[in-house]
Amino acid sequence: MTRASVRGPLQWAVVVPVLAVTLLAATWTHHAHPAVLVAIAAVLAGSVLAAVHHAEVVAHKVGEPYGSLILAVAVTVIEVGLIVMLMSSGGDGASTYARDTVFAAVMITFNGIVGLSLLVGAAKHHLVSFNASGTGSALGTVVALATVTLILPSYTSSAPGGEYTPFQLGFAAVASLVLYGAFVFTQTVRHRAFFLPVTSDGDGRVIGVIDKDDAELLSPPSGREALFSLGLLVTSLVAVVGLAKLLSPTIEQGVTSAGLPHTVVGVVIALLVLAPESIAAVRNAARNRVQTSLNLAYGSAMASIGLTIPTIAVAMIWLPGELWLGLNQTQVVLFAVSVVVAILSIVQGRAKTLQGVVHLVLLAAFVVVSVQP
């Protein structure tokens, strides 16, 4: 991974996070003017790019798969913060914001990030290779998490509709943490080699792993630089949460004015919070590090469910209203097809551009049925 320096006060990656938090503080109570909203949107985009930059610096220091894990957890913090803020403000879609956002994150990671990574990587390198054992275990964990938290509530009978009883919600929260914790232990301690970028032969068959970056790349940043970037990463993510919160009423009003379902708000939120990981995943795919891209994709889906649902479950102690987690029939079908396609894409440990196109078409189908059920 190449590393851009973050030294010097005039570096854009240093200036943007500082500018973002300054703008956030200055406009927190007065942000209704169109010009202010445009400025917020522009700085929000810059904050996303700054977050990607600093996450890559930190990842270069700690190595894989820790770098992917750091970014996945950091982005999930954004998602949780936005969901809690939106739910606390009430509104017609408050009871389903958590479900809509988490499911949108799963579909975007399953089909958007994975699809773009496979398409970009295979288009540039003919075939892309990855460790099917590591990626398959990540996929299996995400499927288990989604089943417990998003699918079962639609079929239980103790609570109405797509709700869980308090006991069931407590179980889902604990189960989510157990599954996520078990996977992190597997990824970072017990079987770390399964999640490292791989080398392959001319036919795309895996022949080894890459434990370190190529020799021609820059040496890792110093501990001081890594800590500096970690601080700026946190600053960028806080700015993204806050600025997205300021934009959320405009997003909700736009969705309502366009006559679109409230589920579209969840899709927009998920697109915002997953932008850093999407950019990082595509960059790694272009460098023929698709394993890292898949770590980011499935790690994001896993963190989105495994950390968001327990946090929301605890927040429901004081948040007003109901919490609907169960998916509708259309969403269940889309998720099931996405899982089948994902299995077929990773089972051989190599992929062509075709797999990327298939995933992206499924993402487009998800967007279409979200906009027009």
From TrEMBL:
Regions crossing the membrane = 12-29, 35-54, 66-90, 102-123, 135-155, 167-186, 226-247, 259-275, 296-319, 331-347, 354-371
Domain called Sodium/calcium exchanger membrane region: residue spans: 35-188, 229-371
Q: Report the Pfam families cross-referenced here.
A: Na_Ca_ex
Q: Which UniProt keywords apply?
A: Membrane, Transmembrane, Transmembrane helix
Question: Does the entry feature the keyword DNA-binding, yes or no?
Answer: no
Localization, per the record, is: Membrane
Could you tell me the superkingdom of the organism this chain comes from? Bacteria
Respond yes or no to whether keyword Oxidoreductase is given for this record. Answer: no
Q: Its membrane topology, per UniProt? A: Multi-pass membrane protein
The record's section on PANTHER family has: SODIUM-POTASSIUM/PROTON ANTIPORTER CHAA (PTHR37958), SODIUM-POTASSIUM_PROTON ANTIPORTER CHAA (PTHR37958:SF1)
Q: Know the name of this protein?
A: Ionic transporter y4hA
Q: What is the lineage of its organism?
A: Bacteria, Bacillati, Actinomycetota, Actinomycetes, Micrococcales
